[in-house]
# Entry
Amino acid sequence: MERKGVDTIHRHPWPRRGGLIDQLGRDNRLKELRMKALLNQKQLSELAGVSPWTISKIEHGQRLPILGVAYLLAQALGVSIEDIFFPNSISILPVSNGNGTRDRA
# Structure
């Protein structure tokens, strides 16, 4: 399953370290959540419609996904984008509880 144009990720455009962008790159839980779902990088890449290279670079904090790729990864893993990239945040937005209604997180 190959999607053209979806597999875009961003490099850090500036050398500055320690900001939000750097935190997103280093502190993501993609590998942890992928392994918890018993998936290898190739399987996750097929489910999300991105390349295994993309999965690897994001897991190692070398690249940041664009919002569309982050969404596809979250959907494939059955989690929210926040679960992957903001693991210590507290969501105040309603989230789906799986039966068509919404709960507060």
